[in-house]
Amino acid sequence: MSTTQGAFDAKFEVDPANPHKEQCWANSQQLSSINRHPGEQVRIEFPRANTNTKLGAIFTVSPQFLSDPDPKRVILGKRIENLNNCQLSENACNGQVKAQIMLDGLGEDDEPAKSMSEFIEKLHEVQNHKLIVLAPHGGNIEPWTDVEAEYVANRFGDSASLWLCKGFSSRKPNGDSNEDASERWHITSTQINPESFPKLKSIIAPTPNFEYSIAFHGWTEDSICVGGNPHNPDADLKCDIRGAIMKALEEANPDIKVHVSPCPDGNFNGDSSDNIVNRLGTNAIQIEQCKIARTKYHDKIAQAVVNAIGTRINV
Ligand SMILES: [Zn+2]
Fold first, then answer.
1. Overall average pLDDT of the 213-224 stretch
2. Residue 167: CA atoms inside 13 Å, Cβ hemisphere, count?
3. Could you give the domains of the chain?
4. Number of H helices, E strands in the chain
């Protein structure tokens, strides 16, 4: 499907009151015309003022449709502050909704996605389905998580698959980052829909088909929390990973607390069966990390995870 076929013209508005910030609301026929349904992700695009560039972002289609007389009306959850920079025409922010969330032809390399402030999906699948390592929010969304995932997967060569996404921030005319990767590209792990992520779709099955899955994330708490499936058959796994990370940080920075779930913020336990990590692995681990842990100790943490999981998959 080409991007022009899978698109409709839209007039964007933001609903500041709606708590579902990553959702969008649109006309059902318009969505059907691009073969997108509630719970799937779509790409939105609009022109930015004073540039000749377009800004892209991903939203999840809300289960509620708009029955507005104007079929072009699309309401976005309030997270893109840059909608303020939309180049208005006829007093409206006119753009497009597209079925395909990634631009055609970008591939898996950081360039040109980085220079275009775009979003990419990357998959390395090996036949052995022992382990898959994930970083759904790599690039500038949750920095260093993709580096950690790649580190772990690389250590296991033919014994580990890797799936990650990277989203990049846009830049100001002077080259400074707008720090907008998270508000444009972050989709909560329980909402990631394989219908919108073609590489993910190629490896996912109705029930988890990897023995182990490990997802790296970043959060705004000042600690690390090891969560995931609360019913992992490998019941020691969570504590073993926590212990390995604690040991790795013992000398480097013992001030960073390392928890196992329940996490200090219970929304990040990674325990939902809808969480992508739990849909892929029978034994599923989600690691939430504060910024300093990712920035300064990403290699130590990744190696700790390698140590904890290594004995389990090298049988
Ligand atoms: Zn995340």
1. 98
2. 23
3. 7-98 (2.40.40.20), 110-313 (3.40.630.100)
4. 8, 13
